[in-house]
């Protein structure tokens, strides 16, 4: 096995990823705890009771939820301002760039391969080769786009709800904000389950999981899973070497 490694994530992007993940789980846990409506008990009541007993009261629970949401927003705004050229714009370019024909082929083949195996790929008339991918594969890019758009919707509707205590009162806007906030959280959480399975549980992607701590991946992983990115790096290294 090739033991050389390639840089994949910087310290800043690793920090932002885990900060984001921590805030997400904290907001999800406290947000679910805030649903104490008898007709809308997603967790059968025990979760709200647990959260209420940890934080002492509904007001404190709401306060910590709001503080975490606002801290998350402020940190991301600072990151977007100061890290725009180095981190944010390159990331957005990556995840919003698609090649529809090969990406669709990748999505279909990869899903069949992961769920039914290579045998079924052949049985269904597909060749076993999976289209080569760049820094992120299409699945990762689609999740990234969903989580970015979801985060924008969640932040805007969250601010509307936050302001409802001070300015807006219980208007139609606030009621719609509550519904849209729930739906957006539900959609991103659905994608998150797949993301966590792919990133932390699937043995195939284990090197990517470790890269979210170390910042590097083995060369052979990069070549096998992200060939277009690997070729780019090798091409750039070759040019540097010749110069
Ligand atoms: C236990 C929780 C989580 C784990 C184990 C995890 C793991 C990972 C790993 C290993 C990567 C790097 C993939 C690579 O280098 O190819 C990654 C990337 C990423 N993560 Fe997470 N993550 C978690 C939570 C979250 C949450 C809560 C969000 C946002 C809602 C999120 C959003 C992203 C995005 C946008 C990327 C870049 C694109 C992608 O790889 O999908 N992650 N995550």
**What shape does the CA trace take?**
globular
Classify the secondary structure makeup into a structural class.
Answer: mainly alpha
| Strand order within the widest beta sheet | 1-2
Average residue pLDDT: 92
Strand content: under 5%
**N-end to C-end Cα span:** 30 Å
Main sheet specs: 2 strands, antiparallel
Number of E strands: 2
The low-confidence runs, each spanning 5 or more residues with pLDDT under 50, are: none
Ligand identities: protoporphyrin IX containing FE
Helix content: over 70%
In sequence order, what are the helices and strands, one letter per element? EHHHHHHHHHEHH
Helix segment tally = 11
- Rg value: 21 Å
What would you note in describing this structure?
A two-stranded antiparallel sheet has the order 1-2. With about 240 residues, it is mostly helical. The model has no long low-confidence stretch (mean pLDDT about 90). About 75% of the residues lie in helices and about 0% in strands. It has a domain at about 10-95. The radius of gyration is 21 Å and the shape is globular. Helix 3 crosses helix 4 (about 85-95), helix 3 (about 60-80) crosses helix 7 (about 140-170) and helix 7 runs antiparallel to helix 8. The chain has helices spanning about 10-35, 45-55, 60-80, 85-95, 100-115, 120-125, 140-170, 170-200, 205-215, 220-225, 225-240; strands spanning about 5, 215-220. It contains 11 helices and 2 strands, in the order E-H-H-H-H-H-H-H-H-H-E-H-H. The structure holds protoporphyrin IX containing FE (HEM). Protoporphyrin IX containing FE binds near residues 8 and 188.
């Amino acid at each position: 096995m090739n033991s050389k490694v390639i840089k994949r994530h910087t310290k800043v992007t690793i920090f932002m990823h885990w900060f984001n993940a921590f805030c997400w789980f904290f907001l999800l846990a406290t947000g679910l705890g805030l649903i104490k409506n008898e007709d809308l008990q997603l967790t059968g009541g025990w979760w709200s009771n647990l959260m209420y007993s940890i934080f002492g009261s509904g007001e404190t629970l709401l306060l910590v939820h709001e503080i975490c949401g606002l801290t998350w927003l402020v940190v991301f705004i600072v990151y977007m301002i100061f890290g725009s050229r180095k981190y944010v714009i390159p990331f957005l370019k990556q995840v919003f760039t698609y090649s529809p024909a090969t990406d669709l082929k990748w999505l279909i083949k990869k899903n069949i391969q992961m769920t039914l195996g290579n045998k079924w790929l052949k049985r269904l008339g597909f060749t076993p080769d999976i289209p080569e991918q760049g820094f992120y594969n299409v699945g990762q890019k689609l999740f990234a786009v969903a989580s970015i758009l979801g985060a924008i919707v969640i932040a805007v509707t969250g601010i509307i709800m936050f302001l409802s205590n001070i300015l807006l009162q219980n208007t139609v806007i606030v009621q719609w904000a509550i519904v849209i906030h729930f739906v957006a959280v539900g959609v991103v959480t659905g994608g998150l389950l797949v993301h966590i399975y792919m990133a932390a549980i699937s043995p195939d992607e284990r090197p990517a999981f470790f890269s979210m701590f170390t910042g590097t991946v083995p060369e052979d992983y990069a070549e096998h899973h992200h060939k277009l990115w690997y070729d780019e790096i090798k091409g750039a290294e070759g040019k540097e070497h010749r110069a």
